[in-house]
Amino acid sequence: MEATADRRIATLARHLETSSFSYSRNIITASPTSSNSSSVFANLARAPEDPILGVTVAFNKDPSPSKLNLGVGAYRTEEGKPLVLNVVRQAEKLLVNDISRNKEYIPIVGLADFNKLSAKLILGANSPAIQENRVATVQCLSGTGSLRVGAEFLARHYHQRTVYITQPTWGNHPKVFALAGLSVKTYRYYDPTTRGLNFLGLLEDLGSAPSGAIVLLHACAHNPTGVDPTPAQWEQIRQLIRSKGLLPFFDSAYQGFASGSLDRDAEPVRMFVADGGECLVAQSYAKNLGLYGERVGALSIVCKAADVASRVESQLKLVIRPMYSSPPIHGASIVATILKDRNMYHQWTIELKEMADRIISMRQQLFNALKSRGTPGDWSHIIKQIGMFTFTGLNSKQVAFMTKEYHIYMTSDGRISMAGLSSRTVPHLADAIHAAVTRGV
């Protein structure tokens, strides 16, 4: 027995002598991941700032008292402050005071009430697709998460792996779809000459798209241009998409926030659902309920039949489970509380219209200010465009000039957030635009 023990000890000693761990004076030499060596990430390049979020970073570093941030896509009050809607505070009080509530995980697909009410909000309470149980809805992480879940689902289960997005579009769109494994192509949308819709280019590009291709559509208040098709143009787009067998994927980030009417802003989506065809819809409550940081969104997939919708939902669970397991509970509970209470819903529509009307007012004030200064050019696109953003038509050099000389921050493509303006700051912006244009920057 002692001989066996001695052999084991000798074997262990030889192993320690030849192992990668060398012992000297009871000190272990540093491994590649220990604190005493250089980082395994030492050769990592610094990533550039996000072009939109980077604007805010630069703004925060500017000590000027006259600085103005028009880059961030978030609503601001006339005083330039973030807004929490009264109806949201009311809903939160109800939730906090409900002692029956707990913090348990919710299902993979999210809160049942939230999903049901979200589908009704975008598709319409009397939508045949809802009545026939042809809609699979899952709660997601705001609009971005809804798009990503939808993109992942399509990459796994849809026969066509090409998605067409508008040129230009929100900067995150191409990344969301590309990283999900889809091939991203663009179709013409904005006409810089008219600062309006390039409708013929849009029809030509979608008309030449391969059958079955996915088409990303902005439901309303196109980001970044603020240019939307007319109802008649939407109908032509619908007919083309259906005749080509293309799959529409709506991004609805601003329902009610564009015109002030939840129903009016949902009309393009409902037009596509009414014809019995299939589509995907990503919803966000960041803007229209001011729930930015709560990350509340939904993905609805409208199918041809109830049994298909049921199978789609089962596969969406398999996408979500390894991604984030289940969504957060608080923000979705706020939305569900408001949507299922008639009085709170009515209060929300009033507050929503007030926000939309203030943005419309900012458009008119800026247009008037430029006109009164005699600023060269036609600035009528400012009042023709809709929603949170305006594509000013300013070039990157003019934008840089306005940042340097007037401390006004926006994305380099000249997109400004109208929600970041106030009656007090409109003259400052108008002066900057006038200077940039007249000085031939």
Automatic annotation (TrEMBL):
Which SUPFAM superfamilies does the protein's record reference?
Answer: PLP-dependent transferases
Q: Which domain of life is it from?
A: Eukaryota
Q: What else is known?
A: In eukaryotes there are cytoplasmic, mitochondrial and chloroplastic isozymes.
Which keywords, in A-to-Z order, does the entry hold? Aminotransferase, Pyridoxal phosphate, Transferase
> Its Enzyme Commission number?
2.6.1.1
Per the record, its GO cellular-component terms are: mitochondrion
Per its record, the protein catalyses: L-aspartate + 2-oxoglutarate = oxaloacetate + L-glutamate
Record-level Gene Ontology MF annotations:
L-aspartate:2-oxoglutarate aminotransferase activity; pyridoxal phosphate binding
- What does the entry give for GO biological process? amino acid metabolic process
Q: What is this protein called?
A: Aspartate aminotransferase
| Subunit and interaction comment | Homodimer.
Ranges for domain Aminotransferase class I/classII large? 66-433
CDD domains referenced in this protein's UniProt entry, alphabetically: AAT_like
Instruction: Please list the cofactors this protein needs.
Output: pyridoxal 5'-phosphate
Family to which the UniProt record says this protein belongs? Belongs to the class-I pyridoxal-phosphate-dependent aminotransferase family.
Q: InterPro entries from the entry?
A: Aminotransferase_I/II_large, Asp_trans, NHTrfase_class1_PyrdxlP-BS, PyrdxlP-dep_Trfase, PyrdxlP-dep_Trfase_major, PyrdxlP-dep_Trfase_small
